[in-house]
User: What shape does this take?
Amino acid sequence: MAARITLVFDCCFADPKGFNTRLCGGFLEPYYRPAERNQRYHQVEFTLDYAASALHEAAHWCLAGEVRRRLPDYGYWYLPDGRSAEQQAAFEEVEVEPQALEWIFARACGLGFRVSSDNLHSDLGPSDSFKAAIWRRVREYCKKGVNARARAFARALACAFEQPDPFCAEIYQLADLS
Assistant: This one.
């Protein structure tokens, strides 16, 4: 599954005259690596061969603006597992958009979606408010649209995986996130 997702992403964005970006699996940790002198492509790296990781990292790339795409890992901060409740709340605040977009991409592939709190060692699962915020953002994306990169990728995934329009708000239910 991850290999097919990678192929779709690369078909959409690997053109050197366009975004010159590839999605690559097999890594222990996700990371974004902008092209340097000895590197041919910008590289969106995802964990091992996990489809959910591929979709999540693609979502981050689709949301990152031009300036952020020039920075290693988009210049984002990241605190590893074991975050406090306050740190977890900050994490959830910045993860609403990428997880909402990941849910759309997952639907476009015919996959389920699971909210990630990315904090396994602290027993802090995703809060109900986080889930609700993701659901609201997905419905907003369906109603108002997403940027051109996200739209192109979602539609290409839906075509490749023979799925219906992933921008139909009615297919997203808050109860699916419990």
User: Anything to note?
Assistant: The two ends are 24 Å apart (CA to CA). The longest strand covers residues 21-27.
